[in-house]
Each structure stands twice: as structure tokens, then as C-alpha cells.
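Reviewer 2 asked us to include a model.

Predict the structure of this chain.
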Amino acid sequence: MADVQGFRAVRYTGAAGALADLVAPPYDAVTQDERDRLYARSPYNVMHLTLPESPEDAGRLYRTWLTEGIVAREAEPSTWFLAEEYTGPDGIARERCGIVASLAVEPHSTGSVVPHERTDSRTTQERLRLLEELRVHPEPIFLLVDAALGVERPEADPDVAVNGSRLWRLDAAASESVRNAQLLIADGHHRYESVLAFAEAAVPPEARMMAVFVSTRDPGLRVFPTHRVFSGRRDLRVAGEGEAVESLEEAFALLVEEPPDRSVAIAYRDGSIELVRGNEAELDVELVDRHGLDGISYTPRAEEARAAVDSGEADVAFLLREPRLEDVFEVARRGQRMPSKSTYFFPKPLSGLLFHPLEP
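Predicted model (C-alpha cells):
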């Protein structure tokens, strides 16, 4: 049973300026150029905290914001209803809804909160060092709830609205609906593990973090594939590992007809297109991972993967099917993890809408 509660959020005040200049994508979805633009947009943009020059700089800056009234803490705990309008990599407009609440982290072995992707220990340590200095969560992780949320969107105007995201304040008890459901980390594995490490060193050994909870039954929830692109791999330039196909349109039509319990991918090369089939009970990403990780890059957009091959920058692109939520949950419940970048949950919740202090 997960410990999920409302929390006393820290929020930007009017002294910080327009909220559109202050929020940002999460730290792991930002390029260096985007980071530079967000830094320049406002001295109070949350990116100064999530991707700082150093953890020490971020800690000093956040404390200054508190002192100067750039951010302020609310008097009462709340749960928040979140609606996110977005257009996915497939070009279709949707709306995804969930709630934002406070989660007590606990080891994955308890089964309450399960991961589905592999992590890198260096990234976890980097986020832990930043958390130790900031002592606040400026961005939530994203959790899937394998049950209905049991919370309705308020009819009033939202308390916060920016960049397609809208927040309504709810009673703190609204978070109780997700306590008995199993939770799966859709996005934020490194941040969760960094808070676990923080909790282990704390006295008492406890820590909480902010999370967006979305039901697997939400009609706006989609998980997109992350296509694989290989460069500098002469060994992958030659076709012959699969069934030759005349066009991408034909390849995609065949792809969706393949049985879900057997791995398959489209191999797109200069001058050739193949449908590559793998084994039963094998994930599509595992089929591609047979080639190793040397020279690999990732993109959720099939047109970007094709363009890399067409321009000569890449030797081959492997285009994948959308992962199935039931497969993601099945892997996680077995205590196993999928390869990195196996799923692309979009959109990623904005950073800076709410802050969650470590201290109650």
C-alpha cells in the first residue's frame, strides 16, 4: 500500500514574472541549446535549479528565491488535478489527466512502486547530490496507476494554466484513491532512486517526493516507441537479416499485423527496407539490442530516424511498434527491467509548476 498524501506546495509568486517564462521540460528532456535559451528567458526559470552550473549554486539560488519571495510555500496541504493538452509524435492531439500528490519512497522490493527500465548509477548519484543541496523537488516523476483514479476534474477555472497544462487544487484527501493500487514508474527512474538513496541515509530513514499519477484507463495516455539509429557501424550497413519490403508504408502495415508476443522491427537502410522478426516472448527493443549499443542514438520520431539514414549520417534505423502497457507492467511485476529508452511517455510533466519541499 503506497503512502500517498497531499502536500504544502511551494509555488512561484507574482514577483517571479510570467509563469510561461519560468517552467521548463524535465532535466533529461532538454538539450544544451534549450538549456541556454531557458537560462536566458528568466533568471528565475526552473532550469537554473534542475540543470545548474553546480549543485551548490542551485541550493544557494533556491534559498535566495525563498528569502526574496520569488517562491513561497502554501499554508495548507493539497492534492492537485492536472490536465495536459498535447500533440504526440504521431501528430494527434490529446489530453491526459491525473493528480499530483506526495509519495513516500520505499524500496522496489515491497512491490508498491515498481520500475520498468534500467538506470545508470552515475545519473542517480548526480541527482542525489543536487537533491542534498536543493532540499526541494522542482519537478515530479510520472507514475502509472493500474486502477481508476476516482477523482473528477473540478468545474471551476483552473488555479494554474500554462503551456497546455492546467492545475486545480483539490482537498488533500483526494490522493487516497491511489493508495491501494500498484504504481509503475513511467518516467523518473533516476530521480526515484536518488530519493531512495537519500532516505537510506536519513534519520529516520524516510523521504517523500512529488509525483504525477495517471490511470492506465485514462483515454489520453499513450506510450510511444523510441526508435534506434546506428551511426559509425559498417557492420550494420548490409541488408539481409529480414524480409525485404518495397516501401515504408507496406512495412508499417505489416508491422501492426505481427503477433504481439513475438519481437519485430523495421530495418531502414539506404536502398533497402526489411521487416526483421525475432523470437517469441522477446521485446522489440531486445531484438535491436542484439546489435549492442555502440553508435546508437534514439528518437521518438520515425521521420527523424529516416532522415538520419537518408542524409548519410546513419547506417541503419530500426523503427519499432508502440510498446503495450500490459507488457511494460508484466516485465516490472516479474522484477525485471526493460532496456533503457524502451518507452517514450509523452508529454513529460512540466517542471516548476509546483515544488515539493523535503521537510513536511
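The mean pLDDT is 93. Residues 266 and 275 are 5 Å apart (CA to CA). We have added this to the supplementary material.
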